Amino acid sequence: MDRMAGWATLRHNGAGEKGCVEKKGNSFHMSLTRHESGSHSAGPGLLCLLGRRARRSLPIVVLVSIALLLMPWTGLLAVDSEFHAEDPWARIGQRLALEACASGEQSLFWARHYAAHPDYLDTVLARAEPWVAGIADELEQRDLPGELALVPMIESGYDPYAFSRRGAAGAWQLLEPTARSLGLVIDEHFDARRDMPEATSAALDYFEAMHRRLNDRWDLALAAYNAGPGRVARLSASGALSVQPWKSAELPGETRIYLARLLGLACLLAQPDRFEYDWPRVPVDSAALSITLDYPVDLAELAVRAGLDIQGLVELNAGHRRLDARVDHLLTLNVLAADRERVIAALERKPGALESQSGAAYRQARAELVALKSARIPENRNWHEVAPGETLWTLSHRYSVGADTIRRVNRLEAGAEVRAGEMIRIPAGVPTLLPDQYRVQPGDTLWSIAREQRVPVALLKRLNQISEDTTLQPGDVLELGEPRCCDQIPSLFEPIATGY
């Protein structure tokens, strides 16, 4: 199937071509009609939309057509909300395949654990909000299980800028060789791993391939996404994974924890009332749609012309490495449904026609974002020489370290900014902790951490690759692993002298 087939898309080429609207799942593939006068017309697109429904409901089509002809036309892009189905998370919940709540104490523990940390979960779900409707569409069109929509929550917290030490990037944490083998573009202008519609379609392609390879078992496909398909295929062929993989001692402990956490989220999604968690609904206008252009666009300039938040538009288009977004093929621009009409109006205006009163704000914002978008995360995080246009905000995003932390480490006064040429100390990254992580504090020892967190010392050593020569430093983040409730897995939990 075509890449991004489940995402609402409209085409805009500024050349006056007529277009068509096609309903796919619960999204729309939209071609914008533009006449010589520059105005938009619903005519061909609307007829296309209604025509595809005519086989099922001709009387309704006639009535809707007459009603629309009698009322003022407010724009082609206002059509899709009327046909919006139920909440996308509810649709995803209906597609869960693994009966997570019945899979054992591990999943129940993680469901309770996530529900007990609503601030963390709410943050991740807010980050997922623009994309979850499109993901739900793709899952339905491909007949895939709902658990796949939870994978980016475990992999990255739905952060398109996430970057691992191994080089995996994007919300789906795809390695470059894997991404290229799936047909994703990675070049100096664009990294499709960070573009949510592109990366999602590729990741689902990957899951489908693993599912076919692993005897049509989705539990093994999910395990393979973490442990590698080759490893899981060999274990499956040997009969080692005939039971539930999250209980198999043959899989790495990291993979078992990965699966337990994912099943915990699935259980929480399936039965939120059981855990007293209010899983938030997704507002219709918060969904992202994609506009296909055949010309380059400056993201900062477009945001100013459309009256949008520049940082928000850039984050929706994380795949573009530069603000002057350009690719060697058709360019796809992601915008929120609530902003679509303003964006279309801004695209109609002559590029560069900025209001004079917004010029200073545009130049400042663009300088910051140029520094952020063109920067690569270096290996050495100790010191950074500030480049022109860089600010505490761009440095905090570049290094995944809070701006307040950088200010505190460098003893900068409140409100003070960094200056070009200045050497700034960058502390170790301090991203938001997951529920199963712990940040080392001054005076901590491995034994004291194990006692406080009720985790065996042996498990801490194994999960964090701690040897006898390892010295813990304040600020280090330790993986805590599976909870004490799950010590029925003897290979993962070993008794320790403290007796708990």
Summarize the model shown.
With 500 residues, this protein is of the alpha+beta class. 41% of the residues lie in helices and 9% in strands.
Report on this model:
- The protein has 500 residues and is an alpha+beta fold.
- The protein folds into four domains: 9-84 and 288-315 and 323-348, no CATH class; 88-275, Lysozyme, CATH 1.10.530.10; 375-425, LysM domain (Membrane-bound Lytic Murein Transglycosylase D, Chain A, Roll), CATH 3.10.350; 437-486, Roll (Membrane-bound Lytic Murein Transglycosylase D, Chain A).
- The chain is built from 19 helices and 13 strands.
- The chain has helices at 43-70, 88-93, 105-115, 118-128, 132-142, 151-155, 176-181, 196-213, 218-227, 229-237, 253-270, 299-306, 310-316, 340-348, 359-374, 392-399, 403-409, 446-453, 457-464; strands at residues 9-12, 21-24, 27-31, 33-34, 40-41, 288-293, 297-298, 324-325, 331-336, 383-385, 423-425, 437-439, 477-479.
- The chain has a five-stranded mixed beta sheet with strand order 2-3-1-6-9.
- Strand 2 (21-24) and strand 3 (27-31) form a beta hairpin.
- Helix 5 (132-142) runs parallel beside helix 8 (196-213) and helix 15 (359-374) runs parallel beside helix 16 (392-399).
- It is globular.
- The termini are far apart.
The strands making up the biggest β-sheet line up spatially as 2-3-1-6-9
Span of the ends, CA to CA: 54 Å
Count of strand segments: 13
| Number of helices in the DSSP assignment | 19
How would you describe the oligomerization state of the chains in this entry? Answer: single chain
- According to CATH, the fold-level topology of the largest domain is Lysozyme
Per CATH, the architecture of the largest domain is Orthogonal Bundle
Which structural class do you get from the secondary structure elements? alpha+beta
Strand content: 5-15%
